[in-house]
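Quick check before the chapter quiz. The format below is the same one you will see on the exam, so make sure you can read both the input and the output lines.
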Amino acid sequence: MADEITVVGGIDTHTDLHQAAVIDSIGRHLATEQFETTPAGYQRLLNWLQSHGEVLAVGIEGTGAYGAEIARFLTANSVTVVEVDRPDRKARRDKGKSDPIDAYGAATAVLSGRAGGTPKARNGIVEAIRALRVVRKSAVKARTQTINQIRTLIVTAPSVVRDKLRGLSTRELVDALARSRPGSEFDDPACAVRIALRRFARRYQALAEEIKDADKEIGPLVTHTAPRLIALPGVGPETASQLLTSAGDNPDRLRSEAAFAHLCGAAPVPASSGRTNRHRLNRGGDRAANNALHTIVLVRMKYDRRTQEYVARRTAQGMTKKDVIRCLKRFVAREIFRHLPHVIHTTQPLPQTA
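Here is the expected output.
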């Protein structure tokens, strides 16, 4: 009988259809089928899995992208979800590539223990912060591109335009260009450049307002969710929101502070050989989280007395600045992790804003 056996599921996720596969407890392939990426399709997928026996776990490839919603659905229905990494190139060359193969591979990875990661819950305040950060990051990137285009255009502009803009700061330059009246002689290069610069300046101002609006939305969420985290030296709303996003709504999935440091690319990597015994910077992990740690370290090196004393002591011992920063990142990651389990799971209502 189906209810007398235990099975493991695997899902290869896509935009419109998910390929699901099911294997038994000794790895035998039982069945594979496609399901639509709709609420009704998710329910049929769950019923299909349960029809083969007791579901021990389901491995999903792409829980941070196409598989986010099916992971939420299965978790809400008390099914253990395991995050499965994409197969490496050697495995793809040996076994080939197809949706059923990938689905069976996800199930096999769970059964064998090769995959054991818990995906982000993506169902709380941190997920809301992440969504708002996406648009803020895009606006910051576009604003930087805009000011670079303004300065590049000024370099090649006629001197009658360029000379009036020399020595201005970014704010003064943008304000002056946004208020300018370039005229309407489009066939005149100088006039055309003025028109383009004014449009760029107004675009820059619009993006700056968009970033301010995002900060007003993200700031209270971060403060409410992580008051102890944001109170740490050198930690601001931007860096705190990134670290919260990297940890997710369920930081308990990170088994130790060493796991969090590894996630942030702050775990030391051995680089010893012969008589040399040293570690180097970790170039893996979540680079956005690593950048947040780097920013915190730089702020502390400039304003925190304890950090300054540490830098002076380690420098006197012959350690390079790069290695000192690596050590400080690891320390900050340890300090940040101690606050994560206590600040993310909150049931208090958000303060109302006027």
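If your answer matched, good. The CA atoms of residues 258 and 267 lie 7 Å apart.
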